[in-house]
Sequence to fold (194 residues):
Amino acid sequence: MNFLAHLYLSGNNDSIKIGNFMADGIRGKQFEDFPTEIKKGILLHRAIDSYTDAHPVFRQSTKRLHQNYHHYSGVIVDVFYDHFLAKNWSTYSSEKLEEFVDRFYESLSENQAILTLKTQNLMPYMIKQNWLVSYRSVDGIKQILTQMDHRTKNESKMRFATNELSEFYIEFENEFITFFEDLILFSNIKLNAL
Fold:
């Protein structure tokens, strides 16, 4: 659910952003059914996820959560990292977060015909609740994690993870900053290769 990072790492191409945004719901070779730029976004998303899961700093963050959240730790850290990206947005972009997000929502609306059904169903909730901007606050992250927890029938206990976020806030933020510098470089190289 680290939508914001995936969008940021997609560069300025709206189609690549849309592909990157939809990628989790597109399995195997289904990506081949999409236009070229959407395909690039899907492949970029997959590369970012693989890179992230293997990165030692990301793994360090997940270890802090593993005892309480087990295999959901990576998902939670993805959301935490989106929080730090939103909070520190001006470090990474000269455009205001709200403007970046509004442009993306507009792009989704203009390209509904290409969106997967899952994305079409998700879009109204995401826009109405303005998820991407809400990531900026810990309360916003708690709301997102609670919604995600409901989808696991509350088995994941993700709704409680902001306790660890608050307790280890500085550690998580420092890990994000270190990791994200590496991820930006990796993503730029990957994007150029696609």
About this structure: The first helix runs from residue 3 to 8. The two ends are 23 Å apart (CA to CA). DSSP finds twelve helices and no strands in the chain. The mean pLDDT is 93.
